[in-house]
Each structure stands twice: as C-alpha cells, then as structure tokens.
Amino acid sequence: MDEQVWRGVVNSILHGHQAAMRYEGVVMRPTLFVFTGGSLVGYVHLRPVYRGEDAQNGIVQMSDLAAAASADEIIAVWETQDIALACEIPARHEGPGLNILYASATTQLVHCYTYQERKVGRADNGLWSIEPQWTSSGQAQPITGIEPPIAELIELAFQPLPTVLDDALSVAAAHLEDHGYSVRLTA
C-alpha cells in the first residue's frame, strides 16, 4: 500500500471516529478494511454483539471478507476500551485509544491514537457528545499484547478459503450482511 492510500484511510478513520463520538455519542465500531494489490476491495463493520464470547466471535468473523478477497493487506480498527468491555478482556492500556492496525502476510504494526474525552453537550440520541483530545500521534508499534480476537482476525484474514468460488467475495459479503454486519464492496 502506498503512503498516499495509507494516509487517506487513516484520515478517514480518524474523522469517522470523531464524528461518531460528536454526533452519536459512541465510538467507531470495529472495522476491517480489505486490500488486494494496493486497492481497497471493501470493508466490514462489526455486527451488533452481546458481551463476551459473541463479541469475540463477531470480531474474528470479519476476517471472512479478507479471506474471500484473497487479501494481501488489511487495516483493522478498534477502540481499546470498547473491545475490552465488549469482549470482557483486559484493555491494552488505560484510557481510551483508537487502534489502527496495518497487516500483511509479513508485517504487522499497530498505530494507537490515545485521547482524553471532553464532553461538549448531548447528541440527538441523548448520549453525551464527546470531542477527543488526542494525546498521541499514532506512532507505529509492534503488535505485542494485542487483543486475542484481533490476533485471530489477522491470522484468519490471510488464510485461503477451503473452497474457491468464482464470486467468493460477493458470497462472503452477503453471508456477513445476513448475520448483521455492515459491508461495503468497492471492487
């Protein structure tokens, strides 16, 4: 993935996270962006989940889109405290942080954008409208201590499907949508 594409995706993610917090009072849902040959093939947002095992399984199942696309690069996005609470696992660090992970078959780096929350009023849905005050610049780090469902998502994203279909990507997208995921294909 070239630098311009990477920066564009990261800026979109940061703006999307800020908009979700400000206008809806929520953090961005865990999301997986799938790339083949340097081009975005599509992305999937996590379906509504129950806490615990269902949340963990839901995150891992997003890898189906990458496997169906025979992805050579992915970007996974999640909020630290959101994943910890939903999956009932320890947080990677104290306080809120938006994680943007780049992975290929040979490289895995996570960029963590930590922030403090500043309440700026109420969103239309009654939740607090939050403005993140970024406290880190998202320096790339090795993925030590990564959350188990994210680690499994990465592992499965690059494994080929057991059967190859001519329209595997469309089939995987339809299957994920049938189970409540929000999927967008760009190819």
List keywords for this structure.
single chain, 187 residues, alpha+beta, eight-stranded antiparallel beta sheet, 6 helices, 8 strands
Q: How would you characterize the overall build of this protein?
A:
β5 and β6 form a beta hairpin. It contains six helices and eight strands. α2 packs parallel to α5. Strands 1, 2, 3, 4, 5, 6, 7 and 8 form an eight-stranded antiparallel sheet that branches. The model has no long low-confidence stretch (mean pLDDT 93). With 187 residues, it is α+β, with helices and mostly antiparallel strands. 35% of the residues lie in helices and 30% in strands. It has one domain.
Shape: globular
Share in β-strands: 25-35%
What's the pLDDT, averaged over the residues? Answer: 93
Care to count the β-strands?
Answer: 8
Instruction: Please trace the helix and strand order, writing H or E for each element.
Output: HEEHHEHEEEEHHE
Q: Can you tell me the residue ranges where pLDDT is under 50 for at least 5 consecutive residues?
A: none
Give the count of structural domains: 1
Measure the end-to-end span. 16 Å
Fraction of residues in H or I helices? 25-40%
- Radius of gyration, rounded? 16 Å
The largest pleated sheet is described as: 8 strands, antiparallel
Continuous helix count = 6
SS content category: alpha+beta
